[in-house]
Amino acid sequence: MKVTEHIARRKGTLLSFEILPPLKGRSIQSIYDTLDPLMDFRPSFINVTYHRAEYIYRKNADGLFEKVFVRKRPGTVGICAAIVNRYQVDAVPHMVCGGFTKEETEDALIDLAYLGINNLLVVRGDPERSERVFEPEPGGHRYAIELLRQVVNMNRGIYLEEDLTDVQPTDFCIGVAGYPEKHYEAPNMKTDLFYLKAKVDAGAHYIVTQMFFDNRHYFSFVEQCRAMGITVPIIPGIKPITTRQQISTLPRQFHIELPADLVDALLKTHTDAEARQVGKEWAIQQCRELLRADVPVLHFYTMSNPKPIVEIVKALF
Ligand code: FAD
Fold first, then answer.
1. Looking at domain 3-316, which CATH architecture does it have?
2. Which of 40, 73, 118, 207 has its CA 20 to 30 Å from the CA of residue 93?
């Protein structure tokens, strides 16, 4: 079922989880180990992130550095198929612009359609670690909206080659990313919302937000979206703090702020176990308020660590 169908039929707030593919070489069992304890909560769908291949410098035995092209977390499409097969739950693969030509994107979409996977979250992807700004693949997409338009075209039966015969349209339900605290490259919130609205006008069916730790950011974001005519569901993304180090790593990596009360409580902790407890309690309070606001879905960023999510969801439902 499509994400939007789940939302249309909901009787209360739904649950969904985002997982990462395992590091290359590890087995699919690590995905099952993450998901098995979460499936008791009957999530409506599971998102699987996509990780582009990138150039890294590897030090050889002779001390010289070699430039190599590696994909650390391959397997998004296969994991989605495995999830559907094992749990009979809908899987939402993420599709990125970075590292893909339009032809490779089309091939990946055809694979997904053949597998019966008709949900997608389309995002641009971040710049490679070796790049300062995002550079598309030659013949690829620069912004998520361009990738979105390619999917919308395929949903209309328009493929890259124009002379195909007996063409079957795909039927993808398409989510896009939104940023309650603004995307870090956008000059201001108004501009960022302008481009978000463009994605919705181009055919996005729903929005999933970046993580946030102060619900006021989410409520204000939804209000601003509604004021400018964005009517699609806006799914809040929740990430519980699980280590002390995340006080600095999360703001740096995701360009979000941590409220002073949360940071004060975390600074009083001495171990990751104590920090995890603070993070859990904070997330429970956040989720309780979001549930009272009847958000369509609570979407948890698991970071492949199910334990804190299990404890939070148990406390909520
Ligand atoms: P875009 O919508 O293309 O926006 C990027 C920036 O460009 C924004 O500042 C926007 O305001 C601006 N912009 C947009 N259109 C235009 C235009 N036409 N002209 C000028 N400026 C424009 N990354 C991964 O690599 N893999 C994942 O699986 C993944 N999953 C994610 C899931 C969620 C829910 C979220 C919130 C993010 C995810 N990301 C993922 C991270 C995402 O790729 C980055 O945040 C990326 O920097 C931006 O992606 P986007 O789709 O929002 O880009």
1. Alpha-Beta Barrel (3.20)
2. 40
Closest CA to 120 of 169, 159, 168, 176: 176
For residues 242 and 128, what is the distance between their CA atoms, to the nearest angstrom? 26
Residue-wise pLDDT tens digits, 5-28: 999 999 999 999 999 999 999 999
* Ligand 1 atom closest to Cα of residue 179: 36
DSSP letter at 288 equals H
Spacing, Cα 97 to ligand 1 middle (Å): 9
Per-residue model confidence as pLDDT tens digits over 57-92: 888 888 888 888 888 899 999 999 999 999 999 999
The stretch 104-120 carries a mean pLDDT of 97
Q: Which atom of ligand 1 is nearest to the CA of 186?
A: 9
| Per-residue DSSP letter, 96 | E
Q: How many CA atoms lie within 13 A of 206 on its CB side?
A: 25
Q: Whose CA is nearest to atom 47 of ligand 1?
A: 126
